Amino acid sequence: MSSNKRALPKGVTVGDFDKAMREIRAIVGAEYVLVDEEPLAPYSKIMIPVPDAQHAPSAAVMPDGVEQIRKIMKVANKYRVPVYPISTGKNIGYGSAAPVERGQIVMDLKRMNRIIEVDAELCTALVEPGVTYQQLYDYLQEHNLPLWFSCPAPSAIAGPVGNMVDRGVGYTPYGEHFMFSCGMEVVLANGDVLRTGMGAMENSNTWQVFKWGYGPTLDGIFTQSNYGIVTKMGMWLMPAPPDFRPFCIQYPNETDITKIVDALRPLRIAMVIPNAVVIAHTLWEAPCTPVKRTDYVTGPGAISDDAVLKIQADHNIGAWNVYAGLYGTKETNDANWKIIEAVAAATGGKIITEEASRGSKALEYRFDLMKGKPNLGEFGLYNWRGGGGSIWFAPVSQAKGSETLKQMKMAKEILGKYGFDYVGEFIVGWRDMHHVIDLLYDRSDETQQKNAYACYDELLHTFAKEGYGMYRASTAFAEKVAATYGPVKRDIEKRLKKALDPNNIIAPGRCGISL
Amino acid sequence: MMKKLFGVCTALVTALASGQAWAGGQTEAERGLAVFQEWCVSCHGIGPGHPGTQALDHRYQGALAGALEQRTDLSPEIVKAFVRNGISVMPFFRKTEISDAELDALGAYLARNDQR
Predict the structure, then answer these.
(1) Residue A159 sits in which domain range?
(2) For the domain with range B27-110, which CATH number is right: 1.10.760.10, 2.102.10.10, 2.40.50.40, 3.40.1190.10?
(3) B60 touches chain A (CB under 8 A)
(4) Where is the FAD-binding PCMH-type domain (chain A) (predicted)?
(5) Which residues of A touch B (CB under 8 A)?
(6) Predicted-complex ipTM score
(7) For the segment A157-187, what is each residue's pLDDT rounded down to a tens digit?
């Protein structure tokens, strides 16, 4: 079989590449190795604003387990061919299933899709990278287990390992996913298999219940990095509460964000509201309602403030829409509900309960996400601009009203300058907020694609000057985002890479780490 | 899950009525419906709240059905091309997600009403 002419790993000859692929075929079977352009198409489609060629893979390989991965590591070291591991491959708007650098071999772990264990008493699970949230949800339903997990918006097709490894977030009380992971199995570049925490001990039965083990805790270095391939992950599940009371509070003005955040922060820190609260802007709600952008905007450029106000009035959408829930017993929720009503009244917000929300698709998918029920309702966002372009701009903010208003204004101004809409939301951790903005553009329009890249670049550098860093970034901006965190951190990351992966074969360039 | 079971049962009845059942009691269209329920229905289901259906409604403006299960002009080949490559805002699906055999079944299911 001839090798793919479109892309080869950097510095690797055609001859060595072909030899490597031959040896990998012998490991995983020919049907699980792709090198031709057509079958590689799913590993090439990206939504980020750079040319496809920049992230074109040379091949895709699909191992079925740890032993095959260990053998592939040997081949990769021998020929110095870099592999780019993906799990469910749906990190859409952050790079999808395409490699961080052109020519890398995608290692698709989707075949490893076993739910290895669910412990209903301890409320833990151990899963492989190919498991999707929908699969886990169906498993819990089929086994009649009253356990919930937290999932991100594209949960029906994405999975917990990949999301946790990229430090993604969700919307239940377990919304900070890495915080609620417990124990990893990692294949290192030399083929060693590390189990973190208590898993390092033989015969341990505490791997999924105690994170730290003895000595340095290593789990963190395998997230947003390229130091190993995570092949199993423990995660904590939440007992379904006897009473779940989701709600939305709508606010009429953009500047209301200050009082919203300052009023909610104490409730979140004190765990009166235990889940990852979302504060969504009008233009996040509109596409999921659904509202058509073309009904309000003609011609190029960003949507006007007047049009946004008209959307709010026409469709009963707030300038900001707060989503949160009470998780407890009827008695505790009754007591806390009085606090919610008092806060809404004092801040000028309008509460929409689950009963009152019937028929609203935007509210329905949010309420489902707050109890960990997978769906794809948020994909409505992609219909807003159309054309398949999206890149997430995701700075961290303090959970202080003045800070959030400042970030929102900065972002809106820069987006508007390039002709893009502010489609943003704040996801409240405890003391922080993930300010998540979907920079939506028409990827079939070359000018818009270039503008989207330039816009992200300006957003990144303007925010960095103010001391605001990204919590997560796409493969197109990995290097630039890493650079905003300064040279000392990067030097240590490089030294770790040299120690753990001296031939630079696992996803070089991911999160800006390479030799 | 109930929705899935209901869908599979409906397809089974349809398949048996049309005499297409395989030895194992399943038609290709029935297996295709199960694939649709697992991978496609979140976006392409019938009715509001399905972003894929919404996008196609917007694109066709009534000239064609937005919901794929109501289309009468889909061929297995076109289904396969869109699934593997994605298009515009639609993501791709790899053979590790939907196998080639499952994709054949999905194509048969969505093309079952092809009237061309």
Answers:
(1) 115-239
(2) 1.10.760.10
(3) no
(4) 53-240
(5) 39, 41-43, 45, 47, 60, 62, 88-90, 92, 96-97, 108, 110-111, 130, 134, 138, 141-142, 156-157, 288, 290, 292, 361, 364-365, 374-377, 379-380, 382-383, 386-388, 390, 443-444
(6) 0.88
(7) 999 999 999 999 999 999 999 999 999 999 9
